[in-house]
Write a structure and sequence with these properties.
single chain; globular
Length: 109
């Protein structure tokens, strides 16, 4: 849980499971995360070999993140976590709780 736990890492991984993304794309999809926190979490995930960071030698600099092969082994777990989260959101909404979604591919809005 130290590697993928916390408030932001599961949401980041949920967004990366469908392909590579630039940090600005991730930040737009994850409401409430600061640039500093996103950078920190991505660096930790990269350090733990869960995500790959690819930099392009262009101006302005371009960086993309994607799940590594090792990170892909989390796919089943991430799918289950995201499915449970979607069900939980629906349950909260049925009970009248306003919910803000942070994962781009969720069912309920």
């Amino acid at each position: 849980m130290d590697v993928i736990g916390g408030k932001w890492k599961p949401i980041i991984l949920c967004n990366l499971r469908h392909g590579k993304q630039r940090p600005s794309e991730l930040r737009r999809q994850i409401s409430g995360i600061s640039q500093k926190m996103l950078t920190q979490e991505l660096r930790e995930l990269e350090r733990d070999h869960i995500v790959n960071r690819k930099t392009y030698n262009v101006i302005p600099p371009k960086v993309e993140y994607s799940l590594s092969d090792y990170g892909q082994t989390l796919s089943t777990l991430l799918d289950q976590l995201c499915s449970w989260g979607e069900m939980h959101v629906q349950t909260l909404q049925k009970n009248g709780v306003a919910v803000e979604l942070n994962c781009a591919d969720t069912l309920a809005e």
